[in-house]
């Protein structure tokens, strides 16, 4: 029993401290220790039973000498006891259990080492798997970050393109509008200059025509119809023209027929040449000098058309050509 206790203590000393590992390592360690205890128990039981078997065999193997027949005369002396040398057989039996115990301890140590190696391998494998998982997770995070950055970059580029396109479109629109305004101003200026030149040319023509008309009107009266000496004052020639009040009479006849479609600012003056038959019927009318207002000019011409007939002068005649200035 002391040897069993010593073996148990020795096995207890061989137990490693529980490593701070996984639960699987602790379970394997407990299993290895259980195997060690079972091996030690088997070795102790085998050693304790072996001496009894050897002792029985030794005692049963000692030969016994046969007693001679009793002689009545003199009994023979008792046989000597068995030699004590037969008791020296058990020591080799004690050496064999010690060998078995050492082998069991070695086997137990081997099992413990294997358990430790397996536990270490499991820890290393678990660490490798953890690192692989962490590496894969980091790779996924990096991939997601890259995708997010690429999406953000694409959005920024899209916004910049749209902003640039809007800016370009607005600039082109402003340039087109400015070009149209410039063209309109140039066209208006050119048109105004053309109108001004035309008005000046027309005014020149009208002045010339008015002079010609006056000469013609004087010519129609005829110097030949005048009476008197060569030193006469030419009263007949003067009497052939309209009277001083005829212009007012004509304006009074035409002006009620003037109808304005819209207000006319200022004081426009339209000069119109009117031709009439001897009966007073208006043959034609022509704008000699514009008032500068198209509305007033058109209203005066329409009013002359509505009048249709000129009034007679104080002498009962109608001047064939008359130039009248109309103002509001």
Q: What distinguishing features does this structure have?
A:
6 helices; 328 residues; Fusion Protein Consisting Of Minor Coat Protein, Glycine Rich Linker, Tola, And A His Tag, Chain: A, Domain 2; 6% strand; mainly alpha; disordered N terminus; 3-stranded antiparallel β-sheet
Notes on the structure:
The protein is mainly alpha-helical and 328 residues long. Among the domains are: 130 residues; 84 residues, Fusion Protein Consisting Of Minor Coat Protein, Glycine Rich Linker, Tola, And A His Tag, Chain: A, Domain 2 (2-Layer Sandwich). Helices cover 65% and strands 6% of the residues. Strands 2-1-3 form a three-stranded antiparallel β-sheet, sandwiched between helices. α2 runs antiparallel to α3. The protein is rod-shaped, with a radius of gyration of 76 Å. The relative contact order is 0.07. The N terminus is likely disordered.
- How many beta-strand runs? 3
Average pLDDT works out at 76
What is the assembly state of the chains in this entry?
single chain
Quote the distance from N terminus to C terminus: 153 Å
Q: Could you give a short account of the major beta sheet? A: 3 strands, antiparallel
Low-confidence segments: 1-8, 46-56, 58-63, 220-239
Structure class? mainly alpha
Order of helices and strands: HHHHHEEHE
Helix percent band? 55-70%
Strand order of the largest sheet: 2-1-3
Number of helices: 6
Radius of gyration: 76 Å
Q: Can you tell me the overall shape?
A: rod-shaped
**Beta-strand percentage?**
5-15%
């Amino acid at each position: 029993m002391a040897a069993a206790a010593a073996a148990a203590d020795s096995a207890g000393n061989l137990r490693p401290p529980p490593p701070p590992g996984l639960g699987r390592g602790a379970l394997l360690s407990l299993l290895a220790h259980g195997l060690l205890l079972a091996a030690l128990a088997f070795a102790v039981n085998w050693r304790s039973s072996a001496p009894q078997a050897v002792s029985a065999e030794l005692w049963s193997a000692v030969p016994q000498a046969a007693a001679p027949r009793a002689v009545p005369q003199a009994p023979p002396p008792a046989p000597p006891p068995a030699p004590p040398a037969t008791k020296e057989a058990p020591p080799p039996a004690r050496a064999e259990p010690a060998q078995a115990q050492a082998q069991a301890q070695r086997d137990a140590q081997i099992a413990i080492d294997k358990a430790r190696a397996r536990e270490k391998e499991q820890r290393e494998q678990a660490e490798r798997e953890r690192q692989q998982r962490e590496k894969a997770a980091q790779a996924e995070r990096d991939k997601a970050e890259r995708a997010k950055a690429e999406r953000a970059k694409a959005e920024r580029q899209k916004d910049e393109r749209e902003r640039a396109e809007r800016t370009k479109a607005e600039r082109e629109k402003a340039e087109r509008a400015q070009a149209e305004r410039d063209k309109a101003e140039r066209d208006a200026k050119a048109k105004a200059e053309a109108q001004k030149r035309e008005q000046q040319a027309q005014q020149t023509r009208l002045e010339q025509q008015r002079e010609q008309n006056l000469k013609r009107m004087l010519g129609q009266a005829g110097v030949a119809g005048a009476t008197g000496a060569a030193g006469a004052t030419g009263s007949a020639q003067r009497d052939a023209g309209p009277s001083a009040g005829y212009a007012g009479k004509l304006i009074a006849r035409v002006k009620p027929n003037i109808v304005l479609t819209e207000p006319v600012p200022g004081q426009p003056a339209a000069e119109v040449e009117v031709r009439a038959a001897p009966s007073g019927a208006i043959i034609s009318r022509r704008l000699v000098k514009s008032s500068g207002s198209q509305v007033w000019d058109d209203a005066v011409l329409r009013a002359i058309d509505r009048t249709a007939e000129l009034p007679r002068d104080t002498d009962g005649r109608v001047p064939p050509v008359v130039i009248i200035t109309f103002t509001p």
